[in-house]
Design goal:
By secondary structure, this protein is α/β, with parallel strands linked by helices. The chain is built from 14 helices and twelve strands. The strands form three sheets. It has an eight-stranded parallel beta sheet with strand order 4-11-10-9-8-7-6-5.
């Protein structure tokens, strides 16, 4: 494989059915927010400093009790077997080989226990379902399989309106399945369609901040609240005991007409004042994007679509190449801007144009 990060999407598109490609690439509504997530990074320019000794550089960072080799990880994305037969297990093996944290989606096509066997540092992305016993069961399974944190996604009280998926009449083609829910087939009425309908019905629009205390109590794990876009919600997350948050708009896939995550980030960082980690996803396509996010106050970035394209382009090896290229680009950008470590990165590094 000799493709670059700028080419991997095209490589993936050539290998995927249109329905699968549109599912991964697409967003909600007219996809304005999807485009803005990427465009926001182009609104910043680096302010490099020279005659700094950058002969040795340290890309590591400390987060949730673990030292990570790079300040980015893999965002939760659904249905990896839709893109390659190796599925989430292949993604996890690539992450493990590079020591990169992998956030595994509730809507995985490989059971969370099987994904865990790869040995990657791992978090579990969770929707709190109407059926709290179902939620508790998923949490207990994740904890038992060595997942180190929960990433509670809160920006999906109902499913989004995605025009591409409607046009394609998207559904998981047999024999793919929602692997984390197979044991609940008796509740779902049997069959893949019944299971999908059951999972869809479990979204709970009645969730409130009170449910964070319940989730922390039943899990005993750190809980990151994912999907925040305003300082007001960031303040509530800290007040209610969140262990961190992910500034996210679901990759532009849930509600259109909301801000790009990079544009929302500075206000949230200012509100949080370092009390808990602030992570960012949405629009991160290159190593330099990670550096911009760090400069604007993010503690860590999560990469979604690029990893999916890498998986489609080459399975485990494709994801590993994406991770290597991201690291190489980040390291190069740090050297060329006079930053020796993540701790050296601050707002003076960038200017908005």
């Amino acid at each position: 494989m000799d493709w670059s990060l700028g080419e991997v999407e095209s490589v993936a598109k050539a290998r995927l059915p249109q329905m699968a490609f549109d599912y991964a690439q697409g967003g909600a509504g007219p996809e304005r927010t999807l485009a803005e997530n990427v465009a926001a990074f182009a609104r910043y320019r680096f302010r490099p400093r020279f005659l700094v000794d950058v002969s040795k550089r340290d890309l590591s960072t400390r987060l949730l009790g673990r030292t990570h080799p790079v300040p980015f990880g893999l965002a939760p994305t659904a249905f990896h077997r839709l893109f390659h037969a190796e599925g989430e297990a292949g993604t996890a093996r690539a992450a493990a080989s590079r020591g990169v944290v992998h956030c595994v989606s509730t809507l995985s096509t490989t059971a969370l226990e099987e994904v865990a066997q790869a040995g990657a540092p791992r978090w579990f992305q969770l929707y709190v379902h109407r059926d709290r016993a179902l939620t508790r069961s998923l949490v207990e399974r994740a904890k038992g399989a060595g997942y180190e944190a929960l990433v509670w996604t809160v920006d999906a009280p109902v499913w989004a309106l995605r025009e591409r998926d409607r046009r394609n009449r998207f559904s998981l083609p047999p024999p793919l399945k929602l692997a984390n829910f197979e044991r609940y087939l008796d509740k779902a009425g049997g069959g893949a369609d019944g299971l999908a309908n059951y999972v869809n019905s479990q979204l709970d629009p009645s969730l409130t901040w009170d449910d964070l205390a319940w989730l922390k109590d039943v899990s005993g794990l750190p809980v990151l609240v994912k999907g925040l876009l305003t300082p007001e919600d960031a303040a509530l997350a800290v007040e209610r005991g969140a262990d961190g948050m992910v500034v996210s708009n679901h990759g532009g896939r849930m509600l259109d007409h909301v801000p790009a995550t990079l544009d929302a980030l500075p206000g949230i960082v200012q509100e949080v004042r370092g009390r808990v980690p602030v992570l960012l996803d949405g629009g991160v396509r290159r190593g330099a994007d990670v550096l911009v996010a760090l400069a604007l106050g993010a503690d860590f970035a999560l990469v979604g679509r690029q990893a999916v394209w890498g998986l489609a382009a080459g399975g485990e090896a494709g994801v590993a190449r994406v991770l290597d290229l991201l690291r190489e680009e980040l390291d190069n950008a740090m050297a060329l801007t006079g930053r020796r470590s993540v701790a050296d990165v601050d707002a003076s590094l960038v200017a908005r144009v």
